[in-house]
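Dear H.,

Thanks for agreeing to be a second pair of eyes. The structure we're designing against is below in token form, covering all 90 positions.
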């Protein structure tokens, strides 16, 4: 995992107040989103009970975070985007 991706991981942990697995980094933005959602369901299930739109809100927060932190074009940050091939992140 490159330094940029480690910073993304740490920022996501802070943004969502959740501990994410650090063993390997998903190849796609959607894979990273799924990892965040899975960790949140395990560690913070009450958030899902309180807000049916919570997964959509997480996606929007994640997307905004990635655009800001990695200086990405918002239109390029889609769930199928591959970190290296599509977004040129290492």
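And this is the sequence the design step returned. I haven't edited it by hand at all.
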């Amino acid at each position: 995992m490159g330094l940029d991706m480690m910073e993304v991981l740490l920022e996501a942990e802070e943004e969502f107040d959740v501990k994410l697995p650090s063993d390997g980094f998903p190849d796609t933005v959607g894979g990273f989103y799924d990892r965040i959602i899975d960790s949140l369901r395990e560690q913070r299930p009450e958030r899902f009970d309180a807000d049916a739109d919570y997964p959509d809100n997480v996606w929007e927060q994640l997307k905004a975070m990635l655009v800001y932190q990695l200086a990405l074009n918002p239109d390029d940050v889609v769930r199928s985007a591959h970190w290296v091939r599509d977004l040129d992140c290492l």
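Two observations from my side: The two ends are 7 Å apart (CA to CA). The helical segments are 3-16, 29-43, 46-50, 54-70.

Warmly,
E.
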